[in-house]
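Chapter summary example.
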Amino acid sequence: MLFLLGLETYQTQKLSLQDALQISSDSMKNWAPQTPKDLPWNFLRKLQALNAEARNTIMVLDLPLDTRPVEKESQMEEEIIYWDTAEDISADIYSFSELPTPDTPVNPLDLLCALLLSSDSFLQQEIVSKMSLCQFALPLILPDPENHYHTFLLWAMRGTVRTWGSQPPRVMGSFREDSMVLSRAPAFAFVRMEVSSNSKSQLLNDVLSPGHRQQDCFWHRDLNLGTNPREIADGLVEISWFLPSGREDLDIFPEPMAFLNLRGDIGSHWLQFKLLTEISSAIFILTDNISKKEYKLLSSMKGSATKYYFILSPYRGKRNTNLRFLNRLIPVLKMDHSHVLVKVSSTDSVGFVRRVRAIITHVTRSPCRRVSVEDMANAARKLGLKVDEDCEECQRAKDRMEQITRKIKDLDAYRRDELRLQGETWRKVAQVEKELCQIQWASDPPEKYRAELRHRLLELRMQQNDHDPSWGVQEFISGISSPSLGEKQYFLKWMEWGLARVAQPRPRPSPEMIFTLRPKHCGAVDFSEPFWPEPLGVEHFLREMGQFYEAESCLVEAGKLPAGQRRFAHFPGLALELLLKGLPLELIDGNTLSPALRWVTGLLKELHVRLERRSRLVVLSALGVPGTGKSTLLNTMFGLRFVTGRGRGPRGAFMQLIKVAESFSQDLGCDHILVIDSGGLIAGVRTEAGERFEREASLATLIMGLSNVTVVSLAETRNIPPAILHAFLRLEKTGHMPNYQFVYQNLHDVSALGSKPRDRRQLLDQPSDVGRATVQMEKQGDGIQTLADLAFWDPEKQHIWHIPGLWHGVPPMAAVNLAYSEAIFELKRCLLENIRNGLSNQNKNIQQLIELVRRL
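The structure predicted for these 856 residues follows.
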C-alpha cells in the first residue's frame, strides 16, 4: 500500500509539516489525482484548505478515449490479486496508473492510515487538527498490520481545541473552549460483530446529524469508494464529538458526548474492543449473527460497568441462534430486552435514530463514566497499546515545560518578576526611539534635544542590560537550544498548551471591551495599556530574549560595551530555528506597538546566512480589523499557525516563512514567501485624529510598505479602516504600492458572490465619512472621497473578492462551507499568479528587506 501511494520513502525519514506546506506548481492547480501517488498530496492540499470533499479521493485518468481498454471488474480484481502474490515483481507493477478505471482502488481510510504511518508527529497533529475543523471523525487508534502493533494517537490529538455552549445559556461564560484531550464526556462506542446488514458509520452520522442536514463525520459504505475493501485500515478506531451550541431548538443532546467507531470485526480486533469496553458508557453492537465464538468473547465481559446494546437484522441471520445466545448474554451483561434493537429494511429510519438518541440520553442521565482522551490513553497503556506521546523526547520536553509553568501562580506577578525587560522601561525605550526617528526627518532638528534623547536611551538600555535572564527565561532558552530538533519542537508545543492552561480564566471580551482605551487623568490616550488582556504565551519569552539582544546591541553600537563581552548575540539564531520550523515570530511588539528594530534585523541577517543562495523573498501581508477572518484566511491558504479569534491571542504583528519548492522557485521568481499578519493592530473604529490613529496608520504603512502583496480583509463593504486608507495615501506618495486585494468576508447577501467588476466599482463609489476625514488629514483636498478616487485604483483589475462564510450552519456542529474553501483557493491562485507575473512590487532579497525595514 505504501509503495502504491509513493510513501515507501517516508518510512525512515518521515514526511514533515514543512514538506507538506511548501509552495509548488501544484499549489496553483485545482486538479484531480491521476495516479495513486497523487492521492496523499491531493488529500493534504484539500485538508489544508478545509475542503469538505478532502476524503473524496477519486482518481481520474487522463487518457484518450480511444486508447482506454475495457475490462470487467472481476478481471481487474484477479489481476490485482496476482500482482500482490507474485514473487518476482518489477518496481512499477504496483502502480495502477495504467488501469482504465476512473476510480482508484484505494479506500480513503487506507489512504489516511498510510499517510499517518508515513508522517512525523507534528504533521500527524496538523492532519488531525484540520480534520477536526472539517468535522471529520478523527483517528484515535492507528493500526499497523505490517509491524503488528497499534498506536494510540494522544499527541496527534493534543492540538484539537473546540468551543461549545451550555444549556441554558448564561450571560457570562455560556461558551467554553477547551482541549478535547482534557475535556471529560460520556463515550459511546459502535462496533460490528461478524457481518451486519446495517452500516454503523451511517447510523453514527444519522445520530449526530440534525434532522434537516446530513453530516458525514464517519466515512461509510454509501459514499464514493465506501464499498472498496479496506487493506490496512481494519482495526482503526475513530472518534468524533457532539458539541452543543447552547440552543435547545438545535441541539440533539444537552452536553458534549464522544462517539467511537471500530473499523472491522470485534473478533479480529479484540484488543481495541477490550479498550472500548473500559472507556465507554455504552457500546452498540451491530450484527446479523451471534456465533459461538463471539458469545464466548462477550461472556468474558462479565462484571463490566459498560452498558451493552445489540442492533440486529434477524431476517438476514440465524434468528433462533441469535435469540438463544442473547438469552444467555442478558444476565451476563446485565441487559434486558430493551437493550436489543431490531432494524430491517422496512424499519422507519427516522424513528430508529430517535430511539438510539433516546437510549444515549437515558444513559447520560443516570450515573455513567465520563472520560477524556487522556483517560483513554491511560487505559490503552494498561492493555499494552503503544501511546505516541510516550517517546523520550516528548516526555523530556513535557517535564521542562511543567518545571516552568509550575512556578506561574499569578500572571501579572510573573510578568513583573520574571519578564522584567517588558515593563515600564521598555515602554519608555519605545517612546524615546520613536521621538529620535521623528527628529531625523525634521527640517531643522535641534541637536541639543537629540543628544538628550540619545543619552536617555542609553540610560534605559543600561538599566535593561543590568538584568540577567530570570530562571524561567533561562529554562525556556535551554528548551529551544536542545540539540534534538524533535525535542525542541515538542517543547514549543508543550509550552503553548501549558501556558494556555495556567492562564487565569477571563470572560471572553466583547468588542466594546477590546477597543476601549483608558483615558489618563490628563485626558490623553494611554497606550501603555493593551486593548485587551493579553494572555501569556511563547511570544512573551521570545520578546524577553529580543529585549536582552536589543539592549546589548544598543550599548555595543554606542561603544559602551565591548563586542567581545556580548552574551546574547546568539539569540536571533535560536529564534530563527523556530521560524524555519513554522513558528510565527513577532515583527511588531504587541505590548508597545513598536517594532524591535535590532531584533528583527538580527533575525533577517541570520536568515540571509542560513538560506545562502535561496534568499529571494516575496512579502505577503494581511491587514484588517480583528474578527474579519484574515488570520483564518492565511492559515487556510498556506497552512500557517497564526492565532485566530478576536480577543484571544497576542496583539502584535507576526510573520511566518513559507518555502517554495526548488523546482518551482525559478518560475515563481522567489525562493520563500514571508507572510505577515497584522494581528489586532488595526482597530478600524471611527476615530478622530490623534496618537492612537497616528500609531495605527504608521503601523499599517510599515507593514504595507514592506509588502509585495497585501490582502485587506473587511467585514462590511463600507468599512474600510481609516488607518489602512491613510497608509494607501502615504504609500502612493512614495510610489511604493504593493499589489493589493480587498477581501469581503461573511457577506449576508449570497448574490454578492457573483458580483461583476461594475458592481465592485459601485461598492467602492459609496461615500465614506471616515474616508473623507482621513483624506483631509493627509491634505489631499476634497476631490478624493473614496478609495476609487485614488490614482492607483484600476477598476478593471480583479481587486475585490467576496468570500462566503466558513460555516454551513450553526457552530460548533456546523459543516465547513465548500464555497469558502473554493473561494480561498481562487484567491491563493490569483496571489501566486500576480507574484509569478511580476504584478507585485519587485521581489527582494533579504539584504534589501533589511534595508527597507530600517528606512520604513
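To summarize the output: The mean pLDDT is 82.
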